[in-house]
Design goal:
The complex is a heterodimer of chains A (199) and B (237). Chain A has 199 residues and is mostly beta strands. Chain A is 5% helix and 31% strand. In chain A, a hairpin with a 4-residue loop joins strand 4 and strand 5. Chain B has two domains: 93 residues, Elongation Factor Tu (Ef-tu), domain 3; 126 residues, Nucleotide-binding domain of ferredoxin-NADP reductase (FNR) module (Rossmann fold). Helices cover 18% and strands 32% of the residues of chain B. Chain B has five helices and eleven strands; from the N terminus they run βββββαββαβαβαβαβ. In chain B, strands 4-3-6-1-2-5 form a six-stranded antiparallel β-sheet. A five-stranded parallel β-sheet of chain B has the order 9-8-7-10-11, sandwiched between helices. The chains are: A mainly beta (199), B alpha/beta (237). At the A-B interface, loops of A face strand 3, strand 4, strand 6, helix 5 and strand 11 of B.
């Protein structure tokens, strides 16, 4: 066997316990989307939560903004291998939206304006792990990053944090979303490098 | 192949003054679709590893694949791949990856490719996959770049001269080629309104380049009337 990448040296070694395996840090904020950026005005924005029995609750923009708000600072990990540390967000915890919802569901199916979908266990939306984020770095979330509002589930790879979120369906069975049906992992834990099918 | 495998650099060819194509031999390569990418993993003497993704810029040639790399200033990986990684040495690769930004040779509708800078790599892979067919749909590449000497894949693109079914238009943003009639500047609506590739003909559109470029061009395509689900995008930077 020949030498493996002889002469290659580290130039940006990151703090060991903050960077998941196979990732590198970026100072920018790359955009990864499968299609054009949909334009959704806050005047017609609505988020709908539907349970497995068909019970629905929905929030207009003004109702969302009237809910208790969180500020958080978190690290982001994209399956395309960039990680960004200390991103600052504002939004509403999913615990607030799910409070009092009567459900036996174990999965959540996420839908977005523009047609994007993703899936994850409902448990990953609970207990302070997920938000509907509308503010980034103190400013309204730009459309190319998912504005006016996106799901933010920072403990999973970023494709789970659906941009332009429009709906959450609580389900008894799992169904693969957009990237999940195109070869990406069903769960997507960056610390276990669950990037693609078979990981 | 889902795990890492060792590949060998068999040749490095020049695309521009700074960019290079790396031709890698990957034993057991299963083949790939145009538009897919691979991960490459580099290992330093002390065991440190870095992984990056690169689009494959050509259809597979047996067990050989090609990636095309623009060295990023102060980059950790790309300057090494372009300037230092020796021919005959090994590197680990994983792939092929990606199932959305791909062109399958059984598709029959016209294909409009819109490239910004090094975003041309996966689009030229699609164009080359089309050229490998004896017959197939019309292809048009709109290639936005700053100046003529930054053009990649010049020989392949020049070989299209005289063809009408597969063709390329250049949109220079800073300095035009001698004899070019299009005014210098960013891509405009009229650059993407092309006979044979209008919304009525329902082409499949692929847009790849820096984020701002992709946002701009995808917005134009949607404004022209292309259905958003017919516009596939890949952004970097």
């Amino acid at each position: 066997m020949a030498a493996l990448t002889p002469g290659f040296r580290a130039r940006r070694r990151a703090p060991g316990d903050r960077l998941p395996p196979g990732q590198f840090t970026t100072e920018g904020f790359p955009v990864l989307s499968a299609g054009p950026t949909p334009v959704v005005g806050t005047d017609r924005w609505e988020l709908t939560l539907t349970t497995e029995t068909g019970d629905r609750r929905s929030w207009t923009w003004s109702r969302l903004m009237a809910l208790p708000q969180d500020d958080l600072t978190t690290d982001l990990h994209c399956v395309t291998r960039w990680s960004k540390f200390d991103t600052r967000w504002g939004g509403v915890s999913l615990d607030v939206l799910l409070e009092g919802v009567d459900t036996h569901a174990t999965y959540a199916w996420i839908e977005s304006y523009g047609g994007y979908t993703t899936n994850l266990p409902l448990a990953d939306l609970r207990d302070g792990k997920a938000w509907i984020a509308h503010t980034y770095d103190g400013r309204p979330l730009p459309a190319e990053h998912g504005g006016p509002a996106r799901l933010l589930v920072p403990h999973l790879y970023l494709w789970k944090s659906a941009k332009w979120i429009s709906g959450i369906q609580l389900r008894l069975t799992d169904q693969q979303g957009f990237w999940e049906s195109l070869g990406y992992h069903d769960y997507g834990d960056p610390w276990r490098e669950q990037r693609t099918w078979g990981d | 192949m889902s795990g890492w495998t060792v590949a060998r650099l068999v040749a490095r060819t020049k695309e521009s003054d700074t960019a290079r194509t790396l031709h890698l031999q990957v034993p057991g390569w299963p083949g790939h679709l145009a538009g897919q990418h691979i991960d490459v993993r580099l290992t330093a003497d002390d065991g440190y590893q870095a992984v990056r993704s690169y689009s494959l810029s050509a259809p597979a040639d047996g067990d050989q694949v090609a990636i095309s790399v623009q060295p990023a200033p102060y980059g950790e990986v790309s300057p090494y791949l372009v300037e230092e990684f020796p021919e005959g040495a090994d590197i680990e690769v994983r792939g092929p990856l990606g199932g959305w930004f791909v062109w399958r040779p059984d598709r029959t509708e016209p294909v409009l490719l819109v490239a910004g800078g090094s975003g041309v790599a996966p689009l030229v892979a699609m164009l080359r996959a089309r050229l490998a067919l004896p017959d197939g749909p019309a292809f048009r590449l709109v290639y936005s770049l700053r100046r003529p000497q930054e053009r990649w894949f010049g020989d392949s693109l020049d070989a299209l001269d005289g063809r009408s079914d597969v063709a390329v238009d250049y949109a220079y943003t800073r300095e035009a080629a001698p004899g070019a009639t299009r005014p210098v500047g960013r891509v405009r609506q009229e650059d993407l309104l092309i006979d044979g590739f209008t919304p009525a003909q329902r082409p499949l559109c692929f847009v790849c380049g820096p984020t701002a470029f992709v946002e701009h061009c995808a917005d134009i395509l949607v404004a022209l009337g292309h259905r958003p689900d017919r516009v596939r995008t890949e952004r970097f930077g």
